[in-house]
Amino acid sequence: MLFKKLIFILFVLFLQTQFIAAQDPIPPYILTAGKLPQLAYSSGEDRLGSAKMGYIDTSVLMKVIDTVKNLYKVQLSASRHAFIEKIYTQPIDDTVLPIALCESWRVKGGDEFDSVSFSLNGRVPYKSWMEINPSRIKIELYNAQSNINWITQLSSGKTVKNVWYEQIESDVLQITVELVKQQHYGYSVGYNGKSLLLKLRRMPADIRKMTVAIDAGHGGTNLGASGINSGILEKNYTVLFAKELQKILKKQKIKVLMVREADTTIDNKDRVLWAQQNNPDVFISFHLNSSGRSDAKGASTYYKHIGYRSFTQSILKRLLEIKNLEEFGNIGSFNFQPIQPTEYPSCLVEVAFLSNEQDEKMILDPKFRYKVAYQVYLGIKDWVKQWK
What is the span of the domain harbouring residue 81? Predict the structure, then answer.
């Protein structure tokens, strides 16, 4: 009997060994690849995924230190790490990872954007974020050291007040870009060859000179929530709100871009890519909320980046002027992919709750849908006037 147990244990160990051997080996290094690779702070999960550090350009080399489920844990610097989905990487077996040197910088203005270029002798990982009061963009370069002898600022640049850096760790270079205006209006970060390029948008003087992108949430096979009594589908009614706003803006001679106008399945990543290609001034995404609590009700607006909170506050303030529409709140650091880009101010509008009887009745009313769209328009207009 003891001999049979021993044979069984050895057989189980053999199967485990075979399973481990069959798993993908952990590569020593990876290059970022694919559509919109993102770094994450942790391997944690919720329905929106782990908390994101931000998008990162392709062909950025990083050392792999572990694997967790569908993620690689990568080393950014001696004391910093992040996580990235394996599908956005290309394994590299044999390479070297030298410290990159950051050299001269240049700030200049263009027809539509201002730019700051940071010359490097290799592509390194980075993250960026917004700060307010005062208004700043921060960038950290990992596995990088300063060899900066001059920073050139040309008078053609209209959005940048000051630029400086600190070597906060031996291999972490922190860049500060102080803005002229207090309101963040959009920027992108990516490589142009070996130089990291920061492009900063200029705010239009008037809402009539803006392009507004409108996103009707869900669609096609992505049904969204359903009405508690009516059974209506969120995907069908977000389009109605989006089209109401489209009509209002067109009457004001404002250029409008619609993510979808029909019952079309569109992946959230493709919504981001579409918006980045079309370069709107602001991005509005309509949704209808739902909860397991039938007493949850009201309007709410959402943002990812603190620099865009004022935009979402302006819209929520106008929405709460609608009779019987209560406040559910202004929610930040929201990890919803269509509002993650930094290129333009964005606002996710959860109009009301399909799971609440009072809210559902309002959603079914065409007059309410027009009023919501009109208040969103006023919220955009208020925000632009505030920061002109």
Answer: 28-97
